[in-house]
């Protein structure tokens, strides 16, 4: 569509509007007043913001190293702050402080107000550790008050929460340390009691003892076999000798026996004490032989029934046989004693094995409890230092970087915008209606439309003309229209001024009705 065609439509729209000027004026008036009343009814919106700085004082951390845990900043600080501010705990305290605790008759009304406050709060993360908290409301004073209260409660709650978290962690670790200490003392008492009631020694000592006893038993078995052989041989020789003989060799035989007994005694004293049974028997035999030798030296032995003396060799063999039998019994007793000691060593090794398992369990429990207790003491000290740091303001502290400013002007579309846009928007709406009517209407308003009809030829175009009577009527109508517009304009401006300078809505409506 070219420019000429557009101007044709403009002329047609203007002619249509002029033909219905009073309707157009009435519609424009209605729409203008409606837009202005929307601006009156729409409450102003005031907004204010505070910038918070999340200060992380890490100067203490390099000094303490790993001895203390300083509260760190989370990755998404704005979400953390938003979650805390939006929590019912914070909003309930803010609403009670601003509106009063008894301002709400029911919990539902208080929840509705909390939801309204939550929807009007905005939390945005800025560069670095800066966070901006904004609030908007239809009252400048309430906006300023609620925003300051929200930020103050948040900062105080963050500090209290951080201190409470550190204190709770310290108390928990302290309880765990006390619990592990009790378990450690109990395990130590069990270990002491076990060690004080078990004297079986070590497994190596018992194994050495068992090896020694086995070696001794093997030696005794060999000695017993030798003793059996010697005893049998003496018995065999004794059975071949006569019991009686001449008295010529009596003294020599007794001396020979005495020397043999002394040699045996000297051999036994190398390994045994004088209280040993075999040595005691040999002493008795030596005493007897000495008495016999002394008697033979002073007088002759008494004669026997067949005028013959005892055979000295027979007496010597009998003595040797008796000594061999005594030694054999002694070896057998020693073997029994060694076997009993070996059995006791085996039982002792069994007890040591059982005690070793129990001792390992007690030692393992003691070591575990000791390690855990020492770790808990270290963690307790860290928790104590962390608690002191949080109490003294170390770690993450939210500080007021930029205070809130009192909102003197409302934000967004104000009443002046509605007042100025009312007539313009109304006129544009009316023009749009007439343009749509012309485009949709099937009437022929241009000569070019006739040319497009097939079978119809355009001969000439006659321009529109008006008579003098129509001109007079038009002037009268224009005069009334002008008066109507002046009256509506005065009413429009009067209502705007009344609202601007604080007139009530009822007075404004009455003023608009004239």
What does this structure look like?
The chain is α+β, with helices and mostly antiparallel strands. Among the domains are: 141 residues, no CATH class; 176 residues, Helix Hairpins (Orthogonal Bundle), CATH 1.10.287. Helix content is 72%, strand content 7%. The chain is built from 15 helices and six strands. Helix 7 packs antiparallel against helix 11 and helix 14 packs antiparallel against helix 15.
Average pLDDT figure: 76
Going by CATH, the architecture of the domain at 203-378 would be Orthogonal Bundle
CATH class value of the domain at 203-378: Mainly Alpha
Q: How much strand content do the residues show?
A: 5-15%
Characterize this entry briefly:
The chain has 514 residues and is α+β, with helices and mostly antiparallel strands. It is built from 15 helices and 6 strands.
Keyphrases for this structure?
514 residues; alpha+beta; Helix Hairpins; two-stranded antiparallel ribbon; 15 helices; 6 strands; membrane; XrtA system polysaccharide chain length determinant; transmembrane helix; XrtA_polysacc_chain
What secondary-structure arrangement, pairings included, does this model have?
Blueprint: H1 3-19, H2 21-41, E1 46-57, H3 60-64, H4 77-85, H5 88-99, H6 107-120, E2 121-125, E3 130-137, H7 140-197, H8 203-240, E4 244-245, H9 250-269, H10 277-298, E5 309-310, H11 312-391, E6 395-402, H12 415-440, H13 447-451, H14 468-500, H15 505-513
Antiparallel strand pairs: 1-3, 1-6, 2-3, 4-5
Helix pairs in contact: 1-12, 2-12, 2-14, 5-6, 5-7, 7-11, 8-11, 9-10, 9-11, 10-11, 14-15
Keywords: Coiled coil, Membrane, Transmembrane, Transmembrane helix
Organism: Psychromonas arctica
Protein name: XrtA system polysaccharide chain length determinant
């Amino acid at each position: 569509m070219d420019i000429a065609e557009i101007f044709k439509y403009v002329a047609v729209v203007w002619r249509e509007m002029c033909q219905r000027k009073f309707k157009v004026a009435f519609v424009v008036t209605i729409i203008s007043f409606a837009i202005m009343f929307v601006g009156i009814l729409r409450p102003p919106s005031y907004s204010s913001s505070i910038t918070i700085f999340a200060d992380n004082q890490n100067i203490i951390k390099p000094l303490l190293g790993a001895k203390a845990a300083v509260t760190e900043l989370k990755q998404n600080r704005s979400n953390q702050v938003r979650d805390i501010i939006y929590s019912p705990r914070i909003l309930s305290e803010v609403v009670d402080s601003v509106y009063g605790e008894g301002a709400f008759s029911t919990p539902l009304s208080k929840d509705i107000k909390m939801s309204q406050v939550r929807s009007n709060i905005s939390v945005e993360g800025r560069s670095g550790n800066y966070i901006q908290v904004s609030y908007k409301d239809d009252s400048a004073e309430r906006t300023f008050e609620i925003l300051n209260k929200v930020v103050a409660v948040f900062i105080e709650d963050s500090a209290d929460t951080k201190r409470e978290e550190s204190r709770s962690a310290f108390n928990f670790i302290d309880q765990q340390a006390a619990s592990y200490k009790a378990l450690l003392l109990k395990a130590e008492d069990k270990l002491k009691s076990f060690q004080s009631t078990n004297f079986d020694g070590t497994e190596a000592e018992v194994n050495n003892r068992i090896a020694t006893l086995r070696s001794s038993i093997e030696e005794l078995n060999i000695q017993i076999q030798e003793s059996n052989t010697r005893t049998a041989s003496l018995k065999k020789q004794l059975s071949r000798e006569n019991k009686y003989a001449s008295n010529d060799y009596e003294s020599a035989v007794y001396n020979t026996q005495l020397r043999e007994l002394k040699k045996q005694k000297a051999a036994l004293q190398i390994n045994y004490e004088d209280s040993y049974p075999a040595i005691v028997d040999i002493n008795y035999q030596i005493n007897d032989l000495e008495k016999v030798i002394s008697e033979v030296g002073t007088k002759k032995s008494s004669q026997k029934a067949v005028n013959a003396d005892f055979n000295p060799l027979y007496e010597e063999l009998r003595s040797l046989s008796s000594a061999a039998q005594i030694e054999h019994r002694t070896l057998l007793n020693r073997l029994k004693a060694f076997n009993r000691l070996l059995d006791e060593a085996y039982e002792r090794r069994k007890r040591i094995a059982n005690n070793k398992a129990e001792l390992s369990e007690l030692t393992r429990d003691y070591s575990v409890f000791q390690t855990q207790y020492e770790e808990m003491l270290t963690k307790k000290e860290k928790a104590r230092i962390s608690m002191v740091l949080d109490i003294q303001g170390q770690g993450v502290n939210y500080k007021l970087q930029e205070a809130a400013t009192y909102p003197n002007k409302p934000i967004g579309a104000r009443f002046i915008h509605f007042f100025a846009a009312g007539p313009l928007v109304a006129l544009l709406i009316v023009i749009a209606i007439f343009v749509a009517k012309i485009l949709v209407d099937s009437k022929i308003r241009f000569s070019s439309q006739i040319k497009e009809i097939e079978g119809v030829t355009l001969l000439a175009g006659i321009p529109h003309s008006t008579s003098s009577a129509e001109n007079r009527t038009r002037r009268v109508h224009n005069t009334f229209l002008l008066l109507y517009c002046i009256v509506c304009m005065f009413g429009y401006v009067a209502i705007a001024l009344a609202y601007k300078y604080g007139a009530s809505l009822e007075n404004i409506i009455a003023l608009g009705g004239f």
